[in-house]
Amino acid sequence: MVADLESQLASIVGAANVTAKEQARTQYANDQWWYAIAATGAGQSISCPDVAVRPSNTEQVAAIVRLANELRVPITPWGGGSGVQGAANADQGGIVLDLRGMQAIRSINEKSLTCVVEAGLSCRDFEATLNERGLSFTHYPASAEWATIGGSIAARGSGVLSSKYGKIEEHVLSVEWVTPTGEIVNTPNVPRHAAGPELTQLLVGSEGTLGIVTAANVKLHLLPKHRVFTVFAFASLSDGVEAGRRIMTTGLKPPVMRLYDQQAASHSLARAVETPLDQTTLVMMFDGEYPELVELEAQIAARVCRELNGTELPPSIGALWWERRYVFYYPPYSPELPSIWGTVDVVADFEHIEAVYHATTKAIRDACPPEYNLSLNTHFSHWYEWGSMIYARMKIPTGPERLEDAKALHDKIFKAAIEAALNAGAVINDHHGVGMRLAPYMHAQYGDDGMATIKRLKAALDPNNILCPGKLSL
Predict the structure, then answer these.
(1) Which of 273, 306, 329 is the last residue of a domain?
(2) Which helix (H) or strand (E) element contains residue 75?
(3) 298 with 224: CB under 8 angstroms?
(4) Shared-domain flag, residues 344 and 420
(5) Displacement of CA 274 from its chain's centroid (Å)
(6) Domain boundary among 50, 66, 100
């Protein structure tokens, strides 16, 4: 059957764009979820595609989906493979649909500052092309080198500029997508309408379970003419959180606002900016078209910080952070096997966020036996008018030798963290998506009726359960 599947896919996309089972299981063995990497390293990969295919246009994607329905073969879309929750793993076998054959920028409208871009283009390459024209997408995920436009949309991703420019859902105006039964749909070209439901946002964050985004009409911005950095230290985490709250709820818009707790400031941040830091540290950046407005925003934000007992630090710390903002995700900062690592990024409103921070970080530490020397660096990396999120990055230098024991320890830590966060008033994830890692907590997040509603949507759109079966706990 596999050989027949390869042959039928080749008739759609050409033999050169079909990857046979053995090579596909190597090439698409895992995304960047710790367990997927560890399982591959142990020769027990959880991603087991029977074939991979790389279409070059939307019509081919639709034809592949129709074939999968006919044969009842699962499809797992693949962008850059940079996700950290396990969503891209073809754990049910079937077809890996690699969208990187679709990288065209179909049009740029410099009057409306919009652009139609295909799903397989990486965020880094998209941004570089726009920058040549004095434009920016302003979606700067840490994984920009690998993350694709479609992958960012599917995971409801965020970037370092989100506090001003928003997460990916605020960048997307409309989408072209292939339904789970193989129809091609274009949503209305702007999101602000009263022409019925907003289908675009149904696709955002659906992680490939409800449809495959093949292109998006996105909004652009002019490259900023001016940029200012402001850095403050706080003796109290509460003062730092309150400073962030006042800044966000009074109309100031720092594209970057990162509040590092004392542990993260004195370890990961201090190392990156080559400056000793021993207190909670807030790094802010303001940018824009009008230098005088940028300077004024930064001055007012600094005033807010001083009112909350903040101590101003050299702005060069912020400038160096900006230059090195991605170093945390590369060696020697990024963890490698045999370590166990993972990030708990939960989000809450301002009423609950500080309690969420304390409950979640305590749960992570308490769940790990002391002999494993867990380290935990936590910062508040994305802020909204109504709240913030915590990015709690844990690492165990060397976990149990057996894979099943290592996974049990990993799962124990995440279970404790997510349950503590939910009990403190948080939502289980801010911008990494659910994937396989957080699927067990979807029911706790949505409740009986909420999950039943989502499952009815899935069943109506995907009657043969072709797209990412089991993901999102569907």
Answers:
(1) 329
(2) strand 75-78
(3) no
(4) yes
(5) 27
(6) 100
Q: Which residue do the tokens 């990396």 mark?
A: 381
Do 19 and 43 reside in the same domain of the chain?
yes
Six token digits for residue 397: 């230098």
- Is residue 284 very low, low, confident or very high in pLDDT (cuts 50, 70, 90)? very high
**pTM greater than 0.90 (yes/no):** yes
Which CA distances in Å does 136 have to 125, 152, 185, 221? Answer: 11, 16, 27, 5
224 preceded by a cis bond (ω within 30 of 0): no
End-to-end CA distance of the chain: give it in Å, rounded.
26
Judge if 59 and 81 occupy the same domain.
Answer: yes
**Which residue segment(s) compose the domain that 402 sits in?**
340-437
Q: In total, how many domains does the chain have?
A: 5
> Are 212 and 234 found together in one domain?
no
Q: What is the CATH number of the domain that holds 53?
A: 3.30.43.10
Enumerate the β-bridge partners of residue 107: 116
Average pLDDT over residues 124-153: 96
> What's the CATH number where 121 sits?
3.30.465.10
Q: Are 216 and 120 in contact (CB under 8 A)?
A: no
Is 138 exposed, middle or buried, given 0-12, 13-18 or 19+ CB atoms closer than 10 A?
buried
Q: Name the CA dihedral angle for 128, 131, 137, 142, rounded to a multiple of 10 degrees.
A: 40
369 phi/psi in degrees, rounded to 5: -55, 140
Q: How many residues does the chain have?
A: 474
Backbone dihedral region of 420: left (phi > 0), alpha (psi from -120 to 50 degrees) or beta? alpha
pLDDT at 31 over 70: yes
CB 36 within 8 A of CB 47: yes
Which CATH number does the domain housing residue 422 bear?
3.30.300.330
Q: Where are the alpha helices (DSSP H) in 276-352?
A: 291-307, 316-323
In the numeric block, the tokens 């390459």 are attached to: 125
Which tens digit of pLDDT belongs to each residue from 71-120? Answer: 999 999 999 999 999 999 999 999 999 999 999 999 999 999 999 999 99
Is the domain of 107 the same as that of 210?
Answer: yes
